[in-house]
What does this fold into?
Amino acid sequence: MVANMISGSLIFATALLFGALGGMLSERAGVTNLGVEGFMISGAFFSAIGANFAESMGMGGFSPWIGLLSAFVFTSLFSGMHALATLKYKADHVISGVVINLLAANFTFFLVKLLFDGAADTPRLRNMFAKVNIPILSDIPFIGDALFRSYPTTYLAFIMVFAIGFYFFRTPAGLRLRGVGENPGSIDTAGINVMKIKFWAVMLSGSISSLGGATIVLTTNGNFSFNTIAGQGFIAIAAVILGRWNPYGVMLGALLFGFAQAIKDQIQILDFASAIPTEFFYMLPYIVTLLALIFTGRKTRGPKALGVHYDASVR
Amino acid sequence: MEKVKKKTKNSNVMIPVIAVLIALVIGAIVMVIGGYNPLVAYQSLVTKVFGSVYDIGETIRAIIPLLLSGLAVAVANKAGVFNIGVDGQIIMGAVSSLLVGTLIELPPILHGIVAILVGVVAGGLWGVLVAGLKTKFGINEVISSIMLNYIALYFSHILIKNFAAQEGTARSGMIKESAGITFPSLNEVFNGARIHWGFFLVPFIIFAFYYFFEKTRWGYETKVVGLNPNAASYAGIRVNRIMTRTMFLSGALGGLIGTLDTLGVYGYVAISSSTSGIGFDGVAIALLGGNSALGTTLSGILIGALNYGSQGMQFGAGVPSEIIGIVISLIIFFVAAPGIVKAVLPKKQLHKEEAK
It folds into this structure.
């Protein structure tokens, strides 16, 4: 059961991790990202549509990958709006994020009804990601069950953590990106285009977050409906804050929430838990977030120039 | 100086109006692409809003929560606090008034008043929680209020299931008749539209909002804190206390929404899997209305009418009602990024305005 719980935590954490890594990327470049929920909705929708299309083209087992790719590509529609509003037209970052959430939800539900004759959800996919056993490692007792029998997206998410960690802390480009979020003036003085860095950070942010939504559709749900993404984007943002805008911290944050979600499925088997109302376990992730923030709150500090419009004339 | 003032005032009004027009046009274009007739759609929207006495009553009924939600967000905005947790405050107000309405015996009218007051205070305290987390622990109010929304949702489920359950349904039992706040005689005049005390309460609240911020010391202090908390603190204003006070007021308005809908419209609280989203609409309404009493009222009426009318589009023209959601989000988008509107407008018109 413990191995099941760990495996379940990883799977729940995957979607949150993608969402959070995306959110972190844009926030590290100084653009507040409250639109993670919207990006995840968009990712879930476009992955369902993409995978459906690929299935109808007869691509079979390859179609979930097409779904993943279409989420990544087409979500730039919404990240582009966020970039346009916040960077070019100096809109309030938070408001723009709220708009992205509203627009992504309404736009995708509208399209679902339009494309599928008033249906409330997309057709169920026949080909979804299957769990992949990593050779040799998955045969290790306990650890193998817990860690190395999972979906490809889960492996991808955790690889991405280390890739972004390497990019942030070991490459000049990563240094510049972090600099843009802390002190854009000094980056500009060094002759580097601040807006360009911010733009690509926001674009990539949306695409990475969208993979979180795609994961949910392509591994567990199998289709997209209005409640496929219900608040995961906001929990992902909490994971960013909890992880203090550091990829490894964000990973731990996502794992914590993944664990809190997994525990509610598993704990009800136990006797002592049956006396507690089920709703209490639904509440748990959110209470854990608040407690975690209370205990780390004072020390949390986001990027210095987060949410500030960069203006070269006021350095 | 005078000229500058005039110009800013002009564009303050012009931008939202133009934003609404552009959003409606884009909505029409999307409908054309989707193979619908936008004229029929908008026409059935208008018919739904003004078509009959019943619809007019119900439109106002639908406007009230959105308008109050806009005011709730605007109150907090004035103090520089972003209250995205109105949804949770609505739930706390709703479930508290439900419990008072089902569990306690009181004479009519008094029962309604007590239930409303309890709900309002519950919503206010839920708002104070956000303020406390912000001032005591430095937790960003956006995150804490989103977490509290979900906690309120599941907490309300526990309360409903244990104290006001209706076996075999996904909702609570009905409130006692004595706790109802409807006007049976008016309901008949409006062909069954659900008219309740809120219809007469809301104008007072709008005026109180205006009076509080324009004419009282408390309101003035709140605005100073919102403009620059450091300067306010330096001037001897106790910033934390004012944020807490403001969040109580904001949350109380949220709580009021919940009580009015519970006692005056539905008579029960549903066990739903998500929050109502009225709080997020409130963010849009407050922004569109520029956080002022008049502006928020007008934008609340607009968004409320659009929302209610969108049901008509679904029936009358077969257009998914989400199209109005798209239009509303675009309105906020254009108001939040006025540069886009200015870029779309012909240059001449702007110059004309400047010349005025």
Chain B touches chain A through 45 residues (CB under 8 Å).
